[in-house]
Amino acid sequence: MEAPADAKPDLEAGRLLFARPCRFIKGVVAVDGLPPEMGVEVAFAGRSNVGKSSLINALVGQKGLARASNTPGRTQEINFFDLDGFLMMADLPGYGFAEAPKDKVDAWTRLIKAYLRGRSVLRRAMLLIDARHGIKDTDREIMKLLDTCAVVYQAVLTKADKVSATHLQTITEGVAVELKKRPAAHPIIHVTSSEKGSGIAELRAELALLAEFKTGAVS
Ligand SMILES: Nc1nc2c(ncn2[C@@H]2O[C@H](COP(=O)(O)OP(=O)(O)OP(=O)(O)O)[C@@H](O)[C@H]2O)c(=O)[nH]1
Ligand SMILES: [Mg+2]
C-alpha cells in the first residue's frame, strides 16, 4: 500500500532507518538473476560517474558498501543492497558512457528494460543528475523509458559541492521545468552532496516514507 498522500518526510525516521545494518545481496547481469521481490524497492539510476554508488554509501554511512570509482562505467551490473529488510536499494549500471562498446550498451538496455518493466516491488527510481550539467539527452531516454513503464522517478542532483549556489539554483529550476512535462516524474527535487553530506538526511527521510518506516515502529 502507498503511504498516505499527505505523509511528510520525517528526518528522525530517515536517520533511524539508515542507522540499521545494510548488506550487499548480489550483483546481477541478467534478468533471471534478479533477487526475489520483497517489501519495498528503490532504484538509483543515472549517467556513468554521476555518483550513484557514492550516494548509496553516503545514505548508509558506509564508504565502501557500493563501489565508487573514478572510472566511469565501473558498475556494470545491478547491485542490490538490503537495508535490514525494510528497503531494497538497487544500484543500476550507469548509462551514457560514450566509449562503451555497442554490445555492452545493448546488454545494459535489455537488462534495464526488463528490470523496470517487470519489477512490481519497485516503488520509485531516484534519477541522479549531475548538478554541474543538468539533464542530458541520455537522461531523457531513461525518463522516457520510466514514463513508459509507469515507474515514478524523482530527480536527485548530485555533486552540489562542485557548483556555486547561483548555478545550483539555475540547474534546479531547469530540471523542475522539464520534469513538469513528464508524466511519471515526482515534483520534488533533492539536492545532495555525498562528499559534504548535504541533502542526505532529507533523502533518507524521503526513502523512509517510501519504505513506510516510522519512528517507534521497531526497536
Ligand atoms: N565532489 C564530489 N564528488 C563526488 C560526489 N559523488 C560522487 N563523486 C565522485 O564522482 C565519481 C563517481 O562516483 P560514483 O559513485 O562511482 O558514480 P556512479 O554513478 O556509481 O558511476 P558508475 O557506477 O560508473 O555508473 C567518484 O570519483 C566520486 O568520488 C559528490 O557529491 N561530490
Ligand atoms: Mg557505481
Q: Can you walk me through this structure?
A:
Helices cover 34% and strands 19% of the residues. With 219 residues, the protein is α/β, with parallel strands linked by helices. Strands 1-3-4-2-5-6-7 form a seven-stranded mixed beta sheet, sandwiched between helices. β3 and β4 form a beta hairpin. α1 (11-18) packs across α6 (200-210). The longest helix is centred in the middle third of the chain and has 17 residues, at 102-118. The two termini are 23 Å apart. The model has no long low-confidence stretch (mean pLDDT 91). The structure holds guanosine-5'-triphosphate and magnesium ion (MG). Guanosine-5'-triphosphate is lined by residues 46, 48-54, 68-70, 72-75, 94, 158-159, 161-162, 193-195.
Pick out its properties.
about 220 residues, alpha/beta, seven-stranded mixed sheet, about 35% helix, binds guanosine-5'-triphosphate, binds magnesium ion
List all distinct small molecules, including ions and cofactors, that are bound in this structure.
guanosine-5'-triphosphate, magnesium ion
Total strands: 7
Sequence of strands across the biggest β-sheet: 1-3-4-2-5-6-7
Distance between the termini: 23 Å
The overall average pLDDT, rounded, is 91
Give the number of helices: 6
Biggest sheet, in brief?
7 strands, mixed
Residues in helices, as a percent range: 25-40%
Low-confidence stretches: none
Strand content: 15-25%
Rg from Cα: 16 Å
Alpha-beta content class: alpha/beta
Reading the helices and strands in chain order gives: HEEHEEHEHEHEH
Shape: globular
